[in-house]
Each structure stands twice: as C-alpha cells, then as structure tokens.
Amino acid sequence: MSGRVMPCSPQEIASLFLFEELSPEQLGRLCAEGRVERFEPGPVYAEGDEATCFYVMIEGTVVLSRRVGADDVEVSRTSQRGVYAGAMQAYLGDRVPQTYNNSMRVTEPTRFFVLPAQSFADVMHEWFPMAAHLLEGLFFGSKNTQRAIGQRERLLALGSLSAGLTHELNNPAAAAVRATATLRERVGKMRHKLAVITQGPYSREALAELIEIQERTAERVAKAPVLTPMEAADREDELSDWLDDHGIAEGWRIAPTFVQGGLDVDWLEQVAATVAEDVLPGAVGWLNYTVETELLMDEIDDSTTRISHLVDAAKQYSQLDRASYRVVDVHELLDSTLLMLSGKIGRGVRVVKDYDRTLPDVPAYPAELNQVWTNLIDNAVFAIGSTGGGAGPGGDGTLTVRTAREGDRLLVEFRDTGPGIPADIRSRIFDPFFTTKPVGEGTGLGLDISWRIVVNKHHGSLQVESVPGDTRFQVLLPLTAPETEPAPESEPAPPSGAGPGTETTEEST
Questions:
Q1: CB 3.0 to 4.6 Å from 231: which of 3, 13, 227, 237, for a disulfide?
Q2: Which segments constitute the Histidine kinase domain (predicted)?
C-alpha cells in the first residue's frame, strides 16, 4: 500500500533519534533518495511480501503483527517517534531472503520517512562500514550458533532416546534369553521322562490317556486366569496338600507352577480319575513339564512381541520409510513418542491419555511433530521432577496428554502438575537460548524449535497456560493443508481396537 507523498525536511528527520547524529550532507542525501509518506488507517505492508522499503515513523501509531496459522497476532503497538520497521536486513543483500518478516498497519493518519531498501543498504555500507560488518557477523554468527546448538540439542535428544530404547529392549530380550535357556532344559527333561514312560509298565491305553490329558492341560494353561497374590497363595496351599496326600514327591515345588498354569484341585481330581493310581505320579510329573514349557513359550512370545512393538514404535517415531509430508493420525505419533520416552519418564510419573478418537487425520510433517512432542514431554517431566525441590526427572506427578477439536483446528495439549512457569519469564520461554534448566541440562532451543515447527512449518500455534500445579502447552494444528504445501500422501491406517469417541487411558511408566 502506498501513501500520499509529502515534502521531506532534513530538519524534521534530524529530530528522530535514528538520524540525530548525521551531518547536513547525510540528511540531505536521505531526503533526496527517500521520501515522506502519509498513510491513512489500514495496512502499510504485509508479511512475506518483497521488502522494498525501510520505514521510520515521524508521527502517528503503528501496529506490528506476525502470522500464526490463519491469524495475524499483534506483537507491538506504539506511538513513539522514530520507531522503525521494514527492510532492516537490506544491507545483508542476497544472503538472506529480502521479505518483510511482519505486517505493519496504522490505526490513525501516520507519517513515515520511507527509504528504498537499496538506498538503505548503500548508506549502511558507505557511512558505517565497520558497523555493517559487525552487524553481519552478529546476524550470521547467531544463525550459525543456533544451528550448531540445535544440532547438539537433537544429538542429545537422540542419545537420550537411544539409551531409553536400549534399556527398554534389554528387559524383554534378557527375559527371552532366560526363558529359552530354561525351555531347552525342560524339553530335555521331557525327552528323558518320555523315555522312562515308554520303558515302564504303561499300556497303550494309559499312554493315550496321558497324551490326551497333556493336550487338555496345554489348552487350560492358555486360558489361565489372573489371580491376586492372596488367591494364588491359597490355591498353592490346596494343591500342595493334595499332592502330598496322593504321594507326589516335592508337591510344594510343583504347586506354584500348576497355579500359574491355571490348574486347580478339581483338575487334578479329573486326572486322578482318568489314570491308574500307579501311573499318577508319572502323569503329574509329565503335566508339570507340560505346564512349564507352555508358560516359558508364553514368556518368550510376550518378550518377542514387546521387542517387536518397541521396534515398530522406533520406526513410527523416526518415520523411517515414510513420506516427509503426509496425512497422519496424531495419536499414533503421540503413542510412539511416549513409548520411546518411557524410560526417561520414570515410574513416578503417571501418564494419562485423554484422546478424542473421532478426530480426523491431519496433514503434517510427522517426524518433526514427534520432535515437538519430545520437547514438550521432556519439559513436562523435568517440571514434575522439580516439584520436590530438586531438578530433573524423578519426581511424582501426572502428565496428561489430551486431544480435542477446536473449530477448524486440532488441539494437542500436554498438562503437567509441576510448579508452573513464573509470570515474569512466561513471555520469554520461546526465545532462542532461554532456559530455566541447570547448566548442561538445557540449551534453550527446545521450545524455540518447537515453535518454529508448529507455527512456521505447520501454520499452527503453540501457546502456554500456567499456574502452580497446572501447566498446559497447547499445540493447535490446522485440519486441512494450506494451498502452498505439497499434496500430502495418504497411507492406510493400521487396524485399531479403539472405537469411536473419546478414549481416556492411564499408564504408570
């Protein structure tokens, strides 16, 4: 938008703090190459447009705003003479995109001194060469530092995730190894027991009965009920007494295995009624090996399934073999991130998932959203850990992850019961390099990176609400892709056992 051009007075622009030290010749050059324009209430320039001019306000009121998703959020409003905006990086030339990084409008008739961007770049290099070099070094040095520390932040997060994943994989892997070794031993004993049985005075009918009982016992183990410790202890005492009464040696050792396999006194009575009395001890020993092998195979199955789930979660988290931009179910991303961070979250933190499963999939960069979830969950766990006066993870509290729909956007909220964010620093938490963590534990880039991913890349918003005991970071993502984004690739969703509606689950990690 252009205003009404007015005469430029060197004396008037010399009264602005930006130009008060310039010589009459320099002021004359500014007026010769620039101009004074009067704008009526309304827009002056828009964010993202080519930065063609440098604006210095002479009188009036200006409002600066930044685009957040589909909204323009006001970041500054002032009537102070001499404030400036526009092509402030023109002196950097083509090394940076020369576009306006905010939008400016005026709320009353306002006059600006307007200098073309090229003229601003020329006078900076001619009049202030040393300052121009220092500003260039500061700008690019800050960018390089931010990039380097950002890479370090990602490496630290990767190391933490790798350590947690290794720990999580080690438990089921070690369990599978132990169960396999024990299973090999039990199968060897079964072979020995089979040889003893075949050489004994057992008829073909008795052997057939043993095999039939073995099959029914294996089926019973697969359907074994889950007992409380008190119920299991009572049943072990009953089975141990029954085994002793029927002359079965070491009944106290066999009873716990039978209880775990779902066998009870009634079942043993059926076995005793089926086989001859002299065959009963051998039958019970044979059934003991059967139950043990079934339980060991169940343990191996559970362990390997756990490993498979962890590997799937790691692939989901890293988005291996996936399109970089596609339609995703945010609940899958949240679940994979929570699983990847389960080792770091700790046992004292109760994780509550309050998911609205009716929400549609959204177009997104899933790998980068996972980085946002990682940063916000990590901060929440750290905050919970600091409630007891210490720092870092390890405290007791609740982390609630909630999804919901807000108009035409999808909400993902991370709520923690930590001490909250003090009001005096709340406006700074998204600034680069600002951190409240101890030295060596935070770089101050986690929230800055998250803000850039959500706002700049996904055209959403990231905001925080905080009081002691209730801090909520809220990510709002558009439900539809903006026209400037590539068409997202849609992938078939894996089958899910979750029905429609809101799902709330609670996990202790």
A1: 227
A2: 296-481
Rounded-to-integer distance, Cα 147 and Cα 135, Å: 18
* Sequence ranges of the domains in the chain: 4-136, 200-313, 323-478
350: number of Cβ within 10 Å: 17
Asked if 22 contacts 30 with a C-beta cutoff of 8 angstroms, the reply is: yes
Averaging pLDDT over each range in 264-268, 302-306, 503-507, which range is the top one? 264-268
Contacts for 497 with CB less than 8 Å, ≥ 6 apart: none
What is the distance between the alpha carbons of residues 179 and 216, in angstroms, rounded to a whole number? 23
Distance CA 271, CA 214 (A): 10
Of 444, 372, 378, give the one whose Cα is nearest residue 145.
Answer: 444
Same fold, 4-136 and 323-478: no
The identity of residue 392, as a single letter, is G
User: 380, 371, 379, 278: which is closest to 333 by C-alpha?
Assistant: 371
The DSSP line for 296-321 is HHHHHHHHHHHHHHHHHHHHHHHTTT
CA distance 301 to 57: 72
Lowest mean pLDDT across 255-269, 407-421, 480-494: 480-494
CA distances from 302 to 183, 299, 309, 343, 380 (A): 15, 5, 10, 19, 31
- CB-CB contact of 106 with 76 (8 Å): no
Mean pLDDT value across residues 382-409: 76
pLDDT digits (tens, 9 = 90+) for 322-381: 557 889 899 988 988 887 777 777 778 889 999 999 999 999 888 888 888 988 988 888
Centroid of chain to Cα 148: 22
CATH domain 4-136 topology: Jelly Rolls (2.60.120)
CA–CA separation, 443 and 149 (whole Å)? 7
Q: Which residue has the higher pLDDT, 438 or 178?
A: 178
Percent of the chain with pLDDT over 90: 16
Query: Residue written as tokens 């026209």?
Result: 483
User: How is residue 2 written in tokens?
Assistant: 């252009």
Q: How far apart are CA 111 and CA 58, in angstroms?
A: 5
What is the model's pTM? 0.47
Q: Are 404 and 357 in contact (CB under 8 A)?
A: no
Phi and psi torsions of 266, nearest 5°: -60, -40
Query: With DSSP H G I counted as helix, E B as strand and the rest as coil, what are the percentages for the chain, rounded to 5?
Result: 50, 20, 30
Architecture of domain 323-478: 2-Layer Sandwich (3.30)
| Number of residues that make up the chain | 509
pLDDT tens figures, 59-76: 999 998 887 655 677 778
Give the span between the Cα atoms of 281 and 285, in whole angstroms.
Answer: 6
Cα gap 234→240, rounded to integer Å: 10
Give the DSSP H/E element, type plus range, for residue 129.
Answer: helix 129-199
Q: How far apart are CA 13 and CA 19, in angstroms?
A: 7
- How many whole angstroms separate alpha carbon 432 and alpha carbon 253? 63
Which residues have a Cβ under 8 Å from the Cβ of 217 and sit 6 or more positions away? 261, 263, 267, 287, 290, 291
